[in-house]
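Teaching assistant here, posting this on the class forum so everyone can see the example we discussed in section. The complex has two components, and the goal was to see what a joint structure prediction looks like when all of them are supplied at once.
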Amino acid sequence: MNAQPIMKPYVIGLDLGGTNSVFGIVDSRGDIKATTAIKTQSYDNVEDYVNASIDALQIIIDQVGGIEKIKAMGIGAPNANYYTGCIEHAPNLVWGKGVVPLAKMFSDKLGIPVAMTNDANAAAIGEMAYGVARGMKNFIVITLGTGVGSGIVINGQLVYGSDGMAGELGHVTMVRGEEGRICGCGRTGCLEAYCSATGVARTAREILSKSDEPSLLREMNPEEITSLDVSIAAGKGDKIANDIFKFTGKMLGEACCDFAAFSSPEAFIFFGGLVKAGDLIMNPIKEAYDAHVQKIFKGKAQFLVSGLDGASAAVLGASAIGWDIQ
Amino acid sequence: MNAQPIMKPYVIGLDLGGTNSVFGIVDSRGDIKATTAIKTQSYDNVEDYVNASIDALQIIIDQVGGIEKIKAMGIGAPNANYYTGCIEHAPNLVWGKGVVPLAKMFSDKLGIPVAMTNDANAAAIGEMAYGVARGMKNFIVITLGTGVGSGIVINGQLVYGSDGMAGELGHVTMVRGEEGRICGCGRTGCLEAYCSATGVARTAREILSKSDEPSLLREMNPEEITSLDVSIAAGKGDKIANDIFKFTGKMLGEACCDFAAFSSPEAFIFFGGLVKAGDLIMNPIKEAYDAHVQKIFKGKAQFLVSGLDGASAAVLGASAIGWDIQ
């Protein structure tokens, strides 16, 4: 962290999603000073996308006093390789099919350093810069959304691994062999297949089909139940909905026991839609962890909910990558 | 690494085992210049143990030109906490029941810095200093012995975690629920319960009992079969012995897939008795890894056997901790 608060008080954050690209100019306390956005997929090629981004950015850069006030830019993007600054074979970006050197393209246009990583890593750096991980040197952020992602910090450094692709904790195997659910990665039994939004919806259908116990969720078409519906029903005390969270929390808590054996973090920090259920999901996670973790780690790790403001969390996370550039 | 080759060309390594304490004076290339040993458990209290160690050490220190030639000391010991320099509640050491500040005791007597960690971490630092991991920044050493241990290096640094106890990969859960074998840690289904020396012996008994297929191992009392016997039989082409190694290798290879998801190392380095079987065990590990690993990691990690000389590997590993002191 080298915020240089007087000379260059700001960084640019870009949350590059499949639909929208949201830009923010952020100070060292995590206050967003200006923001803008463009549609990610309105451009056939990456040059047009970058040009449109620069046009939009120029307005907010001027608002904060010009590019000389800005230290760096951080980008959170799918399939982003931190080491190369490239987006690699992103299936959901029309202009991201090959290897796209996006960090260099922005850096050349803006004349400032630009770094890029995936959204879960950006969230981890964001928690360290502005969130609940301030002052922590060893923690793991687990993002629960469409998929399950992770950002791992050890000795105060994000873990990128030998190839820039480390921190794929959504794809540790939780159920081995043929019983394992099919995962989007093409394998079976991954944590993501159980604890992503679609994983939770699938658990809901499985648990509902196994009994006739009454539940608010029975009023819905089983194929349309979302993890948000489960949260709402659980909040109303629905037994089946709480069973779904218990199953999900057990999977996450037991996975955290294996992660503790790896890096013994001082905290696990949960981020994403599912976490909005609060204690309804966090308590089952903690209970499963306490019941299963190795004795030497018992009672040590904290279980926290992200400290980044929901709506702007991804932009804040991305911007924090900018502070982290050496 | 700061070997200071001219001023202080040596470090002391202590491999502190339950039976013997072996000391070596080692140069920056990993050549052992002098060695001595005492019995670990011949002393009722730690003061007597340290005094006896210093008496033995003084002779070999004089042989290499005196204490001014020695930069530091590294100790590999059971239940050692790197952060505190203490042995904590070591069940197998008569004088190690409480919290014993062994690093400080040696440092006070010798007047040089002393660091201490467990044997698997020492092995990892040893591989980086003198072995097959020279020049690597991201790798994992897995020790296969009485237990299964690990030393994890990320960004060129040993991973000690928030409490000094990280790197317990022998205790990730490989078989969940009631089918899991009981592990020495009091839980079930741990990697160690399958891939330690006793785990392999247990696999041997299980596989032998499931068929009448002929095997060299049937000539032995099933309760007395060791992993060395399995190695010897497998080397002679025994089908059952090779099945035992396939089962063990599958467990290790699949565990490495989860470890890759965590830190994407450039190499997995195997150390210990079981590895003496060479390709007979390494090939099943690699085959299971290739079959199971996430696509983005396929073909990236190397699978290596320790480069440290067997008889002196533990002393070399311990000594390397000395070079690593900042």
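For the discussion questions: Residues 94 and 193 of chain B are 26 Å apart (CA to CA). The first strand of chain B starts at residue 10 and ends at 16. Think about how each of these relates to the inputs above.
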